[in-house]
Amino acid sequence: MLTISLSSDIESRLTTEANRHGLQAAEYASQLLERLLASPSVDEVLAPFRKQVADSGLSDEQLDALFENARQEVWQQQQDKKS
Question: What is the pTM of this model?
Fold first, then answer.
């Protein structure tokens, strides 16, 4: 059993959302926490990418240019589809 303290605003929002889903606040909070903790963190998701970048030896400027070029290519492809 776990007991947590919430601000009145958060408790109210939790109760409102739980009611919207036909659940008691504690059950809804439990489902939210289960879902949140079952999902990998942003750091865990990005770890392989960060390792590849570090191993590549690219500078920040080179990496910025790579992303900017990719962004421009996608934008151009979208523009071409509109034509």
Answer: 0.56
Number of CB atoms found within 10 A of residue 31's CB: 13
2: left (phi over 0), alpha (psi -120 to 50) or beta: beta
Model pLDDT for residues 37-82, shown as the tens digit of each residue: 999 999 999 999 999 999 999 999 999 999 999 999 999 999 999 8
Spatial distance between the Cα atoms of 54 and 60, rounded to a whole number of angstroms: 10
Residue 38: both structure tokens together: 């079952």
How many angstroms separate the CA atoms of 46 and 2, rounded? 31
The structure tokens 């289960």 sit at 34
Residue 26: Cβ within 10 Å count: 12
The model's pLDDT over 7-37, given as tens digits with 9 standing for 90+, comes to: 999 999 999 999 999 999 999 999 999 999 9
Instruction: State how far the Cα of 14 lies from the Cα of 17, in Å rounded to an integer.
Output: 5
